[in-house]
Structures are given as C-alpha cells and as structure tokens.
Amino acid sequence: MVSASVKDVAALAGVSVGTVSNVLNRPQKVSAEVTLRVQSAIDKLGFVRNDAARQLRAGMSHSIGLVVLDAANPFFSDLARGAEDRAAAENFTVLVGNSNEDEGRESAYLDLFEQQRVRGVLLSPVGNVIPRLEQLRRRGIPTVLVDRQTENKSFSSVAVDDLAGGEMAAAHLLSLGRRRIAFVGGPASIRQVADRLAGARKAIDAVAGATLEVIATESLTVLSGRAAGESIRSRPEAERPDAIFAANDLLAVGALQGLMLMGGVKVPQEIALIGYDDIEFAAAAVVPLSSIRQPSALIGSTALELLLREAESEDGFAPSQVVFPPELIVRASTQG
Amino acid sequence: MVSASVKDVAALAGVSVGTVSNVLNRPQKVSAEVTLRVQSAIDKLGFVRNDAARQLRAGMSHSIGLVVLDAANPFFSDLARGAEDRAAAENFTVLVGNSNEDEGRESAYLDLFEQQRVRGVLLSPVGNVIPRLEQLRRRGIPTVLVDRQTENKSFSSVAVDDLAGGEMAAAHLLSLGRRRIAFVGGPASIRQVADRLAGARKAIDAVAGATLEVIATESLTVLSGRAAGESIRSRPEAERPDAIFAANDLLAVGALQGLMLMGGVKVPQEIALIGYDDIEFAAAAVVPLSSIRQPSALIGSTALELLLREAESEDGFAPSQVVFPPELIVRASTQG
DNA sequence: AACACGCAATGAATCGTTTCATAACGAGTT
DNA sequence: AACTCGTTATGAAACGATTCATTGCGTGTT
User: Fold this and answer.
1) Does B336 touch chain A if contact means CB atoms closer than 8 Å?
2) For strand C, is any atom closer than 7 Å to the CB of A18?
3) Domain A162-294+329-334 carries which CATH code?
4) What confidence tens digit (pLDDT) does each residue in B47-103 have?
C-alpha cells in the first residue's frame, strides 16, 4: 500500500467515504464523536489527500502560473515574492517558470500551465504573445501582463511607467547642472530599455544645451557596464560625459567600477551616475548608487490580485491597466 | 464548454476514447489514417490534456519538489537551475519552494509536495528534519539532502566539503605570509558557517605563530560585512588583522567596502581578503574577490540524478553521500 | 398516535485519462 | 473451408476525492 485513500480511512473509522470528506471539508456538518474517530483513523493511516483527485473533481487547480524573463534578476525575484505572498493569503500556490527571454521556453511553460489547469497566468512576455493569450482566454485561463504595458487594452497589466522613470532620472542629472549625459544600456530591443531611453531623451530635449549620447551594451549585466565605464574612462577628459544614466543597476555598478579603476574618474565629482531598479546592492555599492525604484513586490501582489478577481468573475470582466509611478532615490553617486 | 476532453475528441473523430489515448501515448499502435483524423479533431477542439486526470491515473506526478533556504541567494538559484535542467532532460518538472530558513514554511512545502504526490524531494534543511524525512520515505517519497552532509547515513546527500573549503581559504592566506587572520561570519548556528570556521581553525593551528580572530556577524549580508569592515578600519593599525576570511561573498563584498571607505585600508596590500561561494558578482567587485567556488549547478543536477535513481529503484536502495571538493579561485583581493 | 422537521450519515455518480482484456477483421496457411 | 496469426480498434474499469439527493433517526408538535 503506497498511501491510504479516503476509502481506507472510512473503513477503519467505520463510516462512509462521504463522511470522511465532510470531516475534511465541512467539519461543522459532522458530529464530534464521528469527527474524532475519523481523525484518529487519518492519523493512524498517515492519510494525505491526493491533490490530483481533488483537482480533477474541482475542474481547476489552486495554482497560478508565473513566467518571468530572468529568475536571477532581483527585480523578478522580488516580484515573485510579492505574488507568492498575496497568493498564499488566498490559499493559492504560485508556480514560477523562467523563460530566460526565450520564446520557446515561454511557450513551453504556458503549455504546462494549461495542462495543469491553473487558475490564471502572470506573464512578463518575451515576444508578441497576444495571440497566445487570446487562445488561453478562450480556454478559460485569464492572464495579467506584468512589467509591460500593452497597446492591447483587452488584457490587464501591471507595470511601472518606464518613460516617466527615464525622464525622472535624466531630469535629476540635469538639475545637478550636468549637461553632457550618457545613456548606457541595451539591447534596444528590450522594451524597458527603449522606454527609459525615450524618457531620458524627452527630459534632455527640454533643456537648451543639454546633449544625450547613447552607449549601447550587449546585455544588462555588471560586466557590460564595466566595459562601458572603462571605455569612458579611457577617453580624453574633455570628451567624457559629466553624467551617466544606466538602464539598470547592474550596469550602473559595473560602470562605477570601470570608471574608478586605477584611481580613475571620481564619482560623483567628475561624473554623476544613476541606475535603475534600486536593487538591494545599489545602496551597498562602494559609492552608494542613486537609482529609480520600482515597487517590485507591489507589482507582483497587485497583478495577482487583478488576476484572481478576473478569474472569479464571469466573463465580461473589464481589464484594467495599472501603472505605478517610479520613485527617485538619491544617494552619494549623484551628490556633491 | 470550458475545455474539450478525450471524449469530445473521440466523438468528433469517430473513434473510441482508447484510440485517442493511443494516438497521444503510443502513436505507433495506431493507423496513419486514424491518427490524422484524431489529430485534426484535437486541433479543431483545442484539446489540452488534463494533467490532474493523468496524474490520478498514474498515481504519481512528474514533478519533484525542491525546498531551498533562500531563493534570493545566487548559490541556491544556481543550484535550482542545475536541478531544473537535469529534470527537464528526463521530462520532469521542479517545483521550487522557499523556506526562508523558517521551519514552518519548510514543513508547509513538504505537506504540499506530499499532497501533490511528487516523485521525490530535494531539501536544504532548516532544522532537524530526519523524522519528517523518515515519514516521507514510509509514504514512498524519497529525499535527497542538498548542501548539507548528514550524520544519518540512511539518506542520500550532495554537498560540498565546507571544512576543506575553510581550510583551503585559510591555507591560501597563510601561504601569502599572513599570520593575523580574522574570520568574519555568523550566525554560528548555521552549519555551513561553523564548518568553514572549523576548517580555517585547523589550517591556522598547524602554523606556528598564526592567530585566528572571530568577528561574528548577525547575518550573511553585504551590510553585515560592511559593518565588520568598518570596525576593523577604525582600529589602530597595529591591531588590525592582515587577512580576512569571510564566510560568504556577500560578507566579503561588504567588508571590502567598509575597509576601503575614505581611502582607508588597502586591499590586498594591507589586508588580504577572501570570500566563499564565488558568486557572479565576486569577479566584478571593485577589487575582484578571491573566493572558494562551489559547483552549485552541479550540486543541483547531481542531487536530482540521485533522487530519480532512488525513486525508480525498488526499496532496498543504498543511499549515497556525495561530497564535492571546493575550489580555490585566486583574484586581486589576495594578490600583490 | 400520527406527523413534520432537522440533523447526520450515506453511497452512487462524477471529473478525464489510461490501461488492458477483448473483439473485429484481413491475410496467410493448411 | 477451417484455421491461426497479427494488426487495429474498442470500451469498461480504475485512479481518489467530492457532491448531492436520499435515507435514517430522534425530537417536538398537534
């Protein structure tokens, strides 16, 4: 006997299977004496409910699926934590899949979630997923997009206004009197990067005499940032920017190192530096980093909330697009 | 109609449900003509297998559960990736739970995994879980411990020899001629911390005139390390150690910052510094960090392999304890 | 004494897939 | 023509929990 079933419990307790189920799910409907007998039978047999059977009968699971672009990115792990905590409060479980920015893996996870009959899906999409989402919706699985605003207003989404964030970062640098601003980031195909750059451009265009230089990187990593920083440091002093806006904090940390190597450029005196995301490490960097904070956990919990509401409602649910404002965090890298 | 079932597919294709199942699971047993008809019915109806029903019938799921101490720690996310990749190759899915070093959450995840009838569990344990694991085993769910050697040889485990790692780190510092060595780490209740310290002590005791000072920290974080570094910097020069071994890289990074603040102590000239884990950031720190590398992904994949082998075997499986050797990675923080 | 009512407990039906013993059929053999 | 294979296809049974219409029983009412 691999494991006991309700039938075994019922037999041992001398009751029907229906009663065992009632003890488990509607204890108030069962007399105290019988409850006790059933409980002790459960203990004696080490009975554990079979989730697959429950789910089959229920028709839907108590899980929701989450597909993130990069599980190693602190932004997404915070987002996931936010979603998980909110889900736990409603007795739901979150299954996390890591697409690694690969459309194939994204699709595989969506397939898996469909087979599991998850209650809904949170998705930070790689490519154009709208057709796939419409298919999911037709099959009764609602989706909420995270960290991405959609043109398509028929889906709910929760995101941060990256355009405003970029504008905010650039405006801050401009307010320090800096005028030769460099944007470090890439690849440009990543929506968030493009939006942050567009926001920065907007702020810079509004100030006479301010210029924007774009330094493209291959990825959003510390090493890419370091390369960018070193290339700036190696320029003649007159050709260096006086401020850098990095598309995320990993790049900013790398840039900082590239600049400071061998007693090079002083941050913030010679070049002010600001990042994006406000990851935990930003505050602890050698020169604590200014950054644009995103409420990552809040994005996760809000998206989950929206999703559950949509899942519970009958069709005809009105999708909503939630956009959180980013927040400027000023630290040493843009002070002095 | 929420979603189509095999029955619907069978009806549309004009065959029996058994045949549909055969098309799905043993295509070679079905004639080409029928296969085609069934496939097109599947496509037309948008049929998606119900995993709960499959699993109920099969008696066991195609998932394995993994409980980690801290999902945000790069060491564990690498370990998880290793396990996931290996699992995917065998058509298994890994469900990741984060215990956050909390016994209650650990237990909740184990309950959940039991209800899901997972094929096995990988566990980086918080407290004394042996009784719980014996219970799981009785119910047919094998367990492999990760990142923890057990006294109890009846369970398989995959770990790195932290004692050897600690010894290796200290021996490296001693080989540089350093004699006043400080160990930065804590809380001591964490097994890994205690083992690394014990290893260091062993190496230091073997060298005449070498001393070991233990600087306890509250946690294994950058901020704790920074505090430790600052307190060392504020000492009179004669009372400072000439080398620091930090219990993990986050502490080492923090210590580095604490030491270097305000043009303080030079690393490695005045104080050599080595960390543990070799997280990605170590190589990219302002002074690239020497560290003790653990094969995190390999630990994950090996543990998964052991687990599957144990799950497939009938009872009478001989548990094995795999211990990987740590590896010394020398970078600038201990050179010069 | 007859009746109605409410509370407990019952157990058959159900969810969707897989499996397996059986049937149907055609081709080859004697 | 009777037979044995071999190949396909069939459909009922099984997995385990839940649900719900039904039964049984004790209490209170008239």
Assistant:
1) no
2) yes
3) 3.40.50.2300
4) 999 999 999 999 999 999 999 988 878 888 899 999 999 999 999 999 999 888 788
